[in-house]
Design a protein that fits this description.
243 residues; mainly beta; DNA Polymerase III, Chain A, domain 2; 2 domains; eight-stranded antiparallel beta sheet; four-stranded antiparallel beta sheet
């Protein structure tokens, strides 16, 4: 199979994130859907392809850092990437990812069927310049009628960074209900905006033992939905273990 267009962009983004340390991840493709799962299972993203893109008739999976060419196939249970250059041909053979595309698709579907009440907030990448990327986590919380609050804590020095919306500022959101403080890893948050400048976040009411849903604002530009497992600093909640 030889991929083009949007598929190649998604694969390239996944590789760039993996190499920069943003998301060490695996890629899963099945039908019109591409999934990216990071190494510690705290982020799961799904991209739906446009009608003009070729579908994956045969499901396929591989580690992002193994991606080597836009032409590949599966042979004897291995993924083979094929490259040519001035009369030479290279084959790179690698293993599959740890899960099957069918398993990852079913995992995503299970969580998206959850209709529990969530607080919807639009965030954009301008907030990244205000964050300290050396601090491991961001804590989100909100009070009814106010905007969302973002806090980073330096657990060693006791220092705190607090980010709130100004009337003309970053988020321009007015919350309908309170939601309890929940945390996600700073690197996970930063990596999401590699794909799009603005995203819709759906925060849970239940607190840290839950997950945040992320959605594209303009699905015609790029149809993406994601899950981020909530955590509190030194305790990660694994998406695959959430009930």
């Amino acid at each position: 199979m030889k991929i083009t267009g949007q598929v190649e962009q998604i694969f390239a983004y996944a590789v760039a994130l993996d190499q920069s340390g943003g998301l060490k991840n695996s890629i899963y493709a099945i039908g019109k859907e591409i999934f990216i799962m990071n190494y510690d299972h705290t982020v799961l993203l799904r991209f739906r392809l446009r009608d003009t893109e070729k579908v994956f008739e045969n499901p396929i999976s591989f580690k992002a850092n193994d991606y080597d060419s836009n032409e590949f196939s599966e042979e004897n249970g291995k993924i083979v990437f094929l490259s040519t250059n001035q009369g030479y041909e290279k084959k790179k053979v690698c293993g599959k990812a740890e899960n099957s595309p069918e398993e990852i698709k079913a995992l995503m579907s299970k969580f998206l069927k959850d209709k529990s009440e969530r607080e919807e907030v639009i965030l954009n990448n301008s907030v990244l310049s205000l964050l300290d990327m050396d601090l491991s986590h961001i804590e989100f919380s909100g009070k009814k009628g106010n905007s969302i609050k973002m806090i980073q804590r330096n657990i060693y020095s006791g220092g705190i960074i607090e980010i709130n919306e100004k009337s003309e500022g970053l988020f321009q959101n007015s919350l309908k209900k309170n939601f309890e403080p929940i945390g996600i890893k700073t690197k996970d948050f930063e990596a999401l905006f590699t794909f799009q400048n603005s995203l819709k976040f759906l925060f849970p009411k239940k607190g840290r033992e839950d997950y945040i849903i992320i959605k594209s604002i303009d699905k015609n530009k790029r149809d993406m939905v994601g899950l981020i497992a909530c955590c509190i600093y030194d305790e990660l909640i694994n998406i695959k273990s959430l009930k």
